[in-house]
Amino acid sequence: MVEQMYKDFSAPLLNAYNFFATYAKIDNFTTQNNTTYFIHESCDLDQSNTNKIMRMDIDHVVQINSSKKLATQIQNLMKTIYNKKISVQTLDTKNPDRYTSLQKAHTNKNIIIIGSNDQYKILRNTLYGVHNANASHDIIPLPDYHITNDLDRWILAALHQMIYETESQINSYVLDIASKEIV
User: Are residue 79 and residue 115 in the same domain, yes or no?
Assistant: First the structure.
C-alpha cells in the first residue's frame, strides 16, 4: 500500500518536472539526448541507490578527485546487470567548460559524475534550492539547460522543495501532510 501511495505521489511530481524541463520555454533552452547525474562519493550503494542507478542505465562514469571506489562499484554493477562495459574517466577540474564539453563528448549517453560531499551540497542548493539535502537524495539529475531568469529559478527551486518535503512525509508515513504539499 505504501509503495502504491509513493508511486501515486511521486509519478505526478516527476511528470511535472519532466514537462517543465522538456516543454517549458526557459530562456530558449535546447535539450540534449543525454542525461547527466551527480552522486557524492560517500554514497552507499544500498538497495535504493542500486535500483536508481539500474534505472538510469549509465553509459559513462566521471570521477572528480579520489572517488575511484564508487566508480568501480558502479562499473561492476552495470557489467553484472546489463553485461555492459562502461568507461570511467577523471574530470579535468581546470577546464571552465568541463561539463559542456563532457556532455558534447558523450552525446546520447547517460553520464554519472562522482564528486565530493561539498560539491554535492553546493550543486543541490544551487540547482534545486534545497538546503537540507539528505541521504534519500544521494543522486541528483543535472539539468541540460541554463536558467538565467530568476523567476524560472525560483519556480524550479519551489518544485524541488515540494518534491523533497512530499517524499520525506511519504517516507514517514504521514500521507495527509504529503498530499497537502501537492495540493
Answer: yes
Same domain, 100 and 63: yes
pTM over 0.90: no
10, 58: one domain: no
Neighbour tally for 152: CB within 10 Å:
17
pLDDT at 181 over 60: yes
As a whole number of angstroms, the distance between CA 116 and CA 67 comes to 8
Asked whether residue 23 falls in the same domain as residue 49, the answer is: no
- Contact (CB, 8 A) for 109 and 60: yes
> Containing domain of residue 95, as a range?
32-144
Contacts 24+ apart (CB under 8 A), 162-168: 162/13, 163/10, 163/13, 163/17, 164/128, 164/130, 164/132, 164/137, 166/9, 166/10, 166/13, 167/10, 167/136, 168/134, 168/136
**What is the total count of domains within the chain?**
2
Partner residues linked to 37 by β-bridges:
112, 141
